[in-house]
Amino acid sequence: MFGMTVVPPPQRPRRLSRVALIVIIGFGVLSLLVVVGIVGLLVWLNHRFERNVAYEVSGTVQSVTINYRSDDQDQTERRVENVSLPWAAGFHTKFMTANARVIAAANAGDQGTLTCTLKIDGQVVATQTSKDGAVVCVEPDR
Fold first, then answer.
1. Whole-prediction pTM value?
2. Which of 2, 84, 93, 110 could form a disulfide with 106 if both were Cys (CB 3.0 to 4.6 A apart)?
3. Whole-angstrom distance, CA of residue 63 vs CA of residue 141
4. Which residues contact 68 (CB under 8 A, 6 or more apart)?
5. ∠ CA 114-76-82, rounded to 5°
6. Which of 124, 108, 112 lies closest to 85, judged by CA?
């Protein structure tokens, strides 16, 4: 025994207990469900605000000034002047969270009727006709 080194027998790798294995698998499944749920929520939110907006103004006046809410992220109010009728504008947006709106006013001295129509995803949500030289269409609250 003197001068001899004793080598311990090789140890078998420790196996995970069944409880630890179940906990690890359960955590993996739960993590996967959370990721799938978050992705589903993001897709739903994306489609919730995604829509096609169409503005139309028609009438018998010669020219009008039109203000309308645009499709950019800050929903800037756009203005076009001296527009001949009929006029239309449309866009597809994912950003428009505020209500859509179009305002048309006849230029000074013009008389006649004005009609505005507002469509969301092809459905008319507002239409107004006026003989007073100005007309407003606003999307109803959602």
1. 0.64
2. 110
3. 30
4. 55, 77, 78, 89, 100, 101, 102, 103
5. 35
6. 112
Q: CA–CA separation, 82 vs 3, rounded Å?
A: 108
Q: Between these two residues, 105 and 119, which has the higher pLDDT value? A: 119
- How far separated are the first and last CA of the chain, in Å rounded? 90
Helix (H) or strand (E) holding 128: strand 123-130
Q: Which amino acid is at 88?
A: A
Q: How confident is the model at residue 122 (pLDDT cuts 50, 70, 90)?
A: very high
pLDDT of 126 > 80? The answer is: yes
Distance CA(64)–CA(85), nearest Å, equals 8
Our CA angle for 112, 99, 118, nearest 5°, is: 35
Going through 1-111 in order, the beta strands assigned E by DSSP cover 51-59, 64-69, 77-83, 87-93, 101-106
